[in-house]
Amino acid sequence: MEINDIIINRRSHFQKEFNGEIAPDEMISQLLEFSQWAPSHKLTLPWHFMVYKNESKIHLFDAIRSSIKSTSSDPIKLEKMAHFESPISHIIAIILEPSLKVPEWEEIASLGAGIQNVYLALLQYPKFGGYWSTGLQANSEEIRNFLGLSPTEIHYGYFIIGGINELRTKSQRPKAIINWI
Ligand SMILES: Cc1cc2nc3c(=O)[nH]c(=O)nc-3n(C[C@H](O)[C@H](O)[C@H](O)COP(=O)(O)O)c2cc1C
């Protein structure tokens, strides 16, 4: 694929689209390696990943469900979460620890570029899709404890990967707002 098509065809594929296929661990490692090629002021690259699959994935979702229960009694939300993990292959917690060498916003911006690289690289595996989720109790007290984060680490959600039957590429975007001065 040409670079233009790669950028435009990149899509999020969500949990409801996953078919239960398990991705090879090597694929996950290779995808995450691309995050290191993000632009990064002073090359601080201040993030790391925690990968959950199989049993550890179930334990993570038990913690997510427990966290939801402690903050909400919405039966619809809880029902939706009952077997949420089943079709997911790998769920990757994204952790950022600000280096304090550059402003924090620059490191968050760099993280976004790193995750975009993961998204783009995923296109080389058309049988798998994924998305960045900042839901699922990300950075809540209970999930922070479960992940074993130090007070200076921030949980910026998850990258969630699963097998897909159909690679979706269509989307619409408004034109960029550009003022030529
Ligand atoms: C920082 C960030 C957080 C996101 N969090 C969620 C989320 O919690 N739940 C969700 O369904 N999608 C989430 N998304 C994915 C967006 O919904 C998705 O990018 C958007 O629908 C556009 O679709 P596309 O990625 O296919 O272009 C997130 C995306 C970003 C960049």
**How many distinct domains?**
1
Number of strands: 4
Mean pLDDT score, rounded? 97
Oligomeric state: single chain
The CATH superfamily is NADH Oxidase
Q: Looking across the biggest beta sheet, what order are the strands in?
A: 1-2-4-3
The CATH topology is: NADH Oxidase
Bound molecules: flavin mononucleotide
Beta-strand percentage range: 15-25%
Please estimate the helix content. Answer: 25-40%
What is the helix/strand order? HHEHHEHEHE
Level-1 CATH class name: Alpha Beta
Shape: globular
Concise summary:
This protein is of the alpha+beta class. The chain has six helices and four strands.
Overall description:
- The chain has one domain: NADH Oxidase.
- The chain has 6 helices and 4 strands, in the order ααβααβαβαβ.
- It has helices at 3-9, 25-33, 54-71, 75-80, 104-122, 141-147; strands spanning 47-52, 90-96, 128-133, 154-163.
- A 4-stranded antiparallel sheet has the order 1-2-4-3.
- 25% of the residues are buried.
Task: Name the features.
alpha+beta; 181 residues; 4 strands; binds flavin mononucleotide
Write the layout of secondary structure elements.
Blueprint: H1 3-9, H2 25-33, E1 47-52, H3 54-71, H4 75-80, E2 90-96, H5 104-122, E3 128-133, H6 141-147, E4 154-163
Helix pairs in contact: 3-6
The protein binds flavin mononucleotide.
Flavin mononucleotide binds at residues 11-12, 14, 131-135, 157, 171.
